[in-house]
Specification:
By secondary structure, this protein is α/β, with parallel strands linked by helices. It folds into two domains: 4-110, Outer Surface Protein A, domain 3, CATH 3.90.930; 121-421, Protocatechuate 4,5-dioxygenase, Chain B. The protein is built from 13 helices and 13 strands. The strands form three sheets. Strands 5, 6, 7, 9, 10, 11, 12 and 13 form an eight-stranded mixed β-sheet that branches. The protein has a three-stranded antiparallel β-sheet with strand order 1-2-3.
């Protein structure tokens, strides 16, 4: 008999399976609850669960049966819970679209159809992560540029070289705004390219290596047109379906935040286009100690993109939305972020950055792979892909920064870098 988790679809009340969701603790009137949130926003509501209920949710993995859950609950709490009670909990979770079930699949298909029907990708985070009003957004973005102490952090930046790759953060603008501005100052100071290929981390990706869309990303300042001809040509030569998880673009912020800065700097008279690409996880390669290029699919896809860039009649710049380390209790580390841990993270980051500024994708990857990506560098795959297809001569660190959350005892680091070719 095969593993239960490999069985085809069943009713969620038989071997219930919770979807990949985010869980976080909250205190309410002195009582602790665990909240569930859907990062894909297919489930709209945030659920607040008492700990015993959340414990049952942790067992909803598609392997444990209702009887298994009953027995585990008794062992944990010394209380008996009926299968009817568990079924009612599952039914509520299913109604709220947190279970892997036909209920969820119907909702997902409906949302996917609505998304595919629109020519634009709506600004998902306007009004929450940044100003939704056009004038206030201009003031917000311009304010970050005004606070930059120097035009550039490195006086040796080549003034005549071609900007080949730009790496900016994808953390929220409130914490990363100055780093964004320091990076995008390089685009601000140079003639615009005809095409910007934008790589971003696909945080909710299931298995796709690259996910593209023909939709133009809209912003409160107007849309940034996608080069559909480029996307279609790549689709014809790519060794996998680049639209399989297109719905990832709907809520992913890693590209959305780059589009904001590009739209502001390029202005309404710019006649160029962009190609938005969400990149999947490299964890399987890290775990196996292999280079991504040892996967024929990765090699072929990157080679095709590089050839298309070389054949492109206009100028091309590759933009990457990528953060660096994610360390602390929010990210699976038990030690939190004492002072010595922060120093270790900064030291590790600068070793990675030293490899990164060489412009060599493999050298950068091997530096991260050496420590099995212990620091959770979520920008690994988009940075690697960008360097591989652009092959820049040299990179420059423009700014390094970090955002510390004392409540969750966690830290996220990020940087701005620019790369050039002669």
């Amino acid at each position: 008999m095969g593993d239960k988790s490999d069985r085809p679809y069943r009713s969620p009340t038989e071997y219930p399976k919770i979807r990949p969701v985010e869980a976080f603790p909250v205190l309410d009137a002195g009582r602790q609850f665990i909240c569930l949130r859907d990062p894909q926003r297919i489930a709209q509501n945030i659920l607040s669960l008492p700990f015993p209920t959340y414990y049952l949710v942790t067992l909803m993995d598609g392997i444990h049966s209702l009887l298994d859950m009953q027995e585990a609950f008794v062992r944990q709490f010394r209380e008996i819970i009926s299968q009817d009670t568990i079924r009612r909990i599952i039914a509520q979770l299913d109604t709220e679209l947190f279970m892997e079930s036909e209920t969820f699949e119907q909702a997902r298909r409906r949302i996917e159809e609505e998304f595919r029907a629109s020519p634009y990708r709506a600004p998902a985070h306007a009004g929450t992560a940044y100003q939704a009003d056009p004038q206030r957004l201009r003031e917000q973005l311009d304010g970050y540029f005004a606070k930059i102490e120097h035009p550039s952090a490195d006086a040796e930046l080549p003034r005549n070289g071609k900007l080949s790759v730009l790496i900016a953060p994808h953390i929220d603008l409130e914490r990363g705004g100055l780093c964004y501005a320091q990076a995008y100052q390089e685009i601000r100071n140079r003639p615009p390219s005809d095409l910007y290929i934008i790589f971003g981390t696909a945080h909710q990706c299931r298995h796709s290596l690259m996910t593209l869309t023909r939709k133009s990303y809209d912003t409160p300042l107007g849309p940034l047109p996608t080069d559909c001809e480029f996307v279609d040509r790549f689709s014809q030569s790519a060794p996998f379906d680049i639209f399989e998880e297109e719905l990832l673009h709907r809520d992913e912020h890693s590209i959305e935040f780059q589009v904001l800065y590009l739209r502001r700097l390029l202005g309404s008279h710019w006649k160029g286009k962009v190609v938005p690409i969400l990149s999947g996880s490299f964890h399987p390669y890290i775990h196996a100690g292999r280079s991504p290029r040892e996967d024929p699919r990765v090699q072929q896809a990157l080679d095709v993109l590089r050839d298309m860039i070389h054949e492109y009649e206009g100028s091309v710049t590759v933009v990457v939305g990528a953060d660096l380390s994610h360390v602390g209790k929010n990210f699976g580390h038990m030690t939190g972020i004492p002072a010595d841990e922060l120093k270790r993270v900064e030291k590790d980051d600068h070793e990675v950055l030293d490899a990164l500024v060489t412009g060599d994708a493999e050298q950068f990857y091997r530096r991260v792979e050496k420590k099995k990506n212990y620091n959770n560098i979520c920008g690994l795959s988009p940075i690697y892909m960008a360097l591989d297809i652009a092959r820049p001569a040299k990179g420059y660190l423009l700014r390094y920064d970090r955002a510390i959350d004392q409540v969750s005892e966690s830290v996220v680091t990020f940087a701005g870098l620019s790369f050039y070719t002669a």
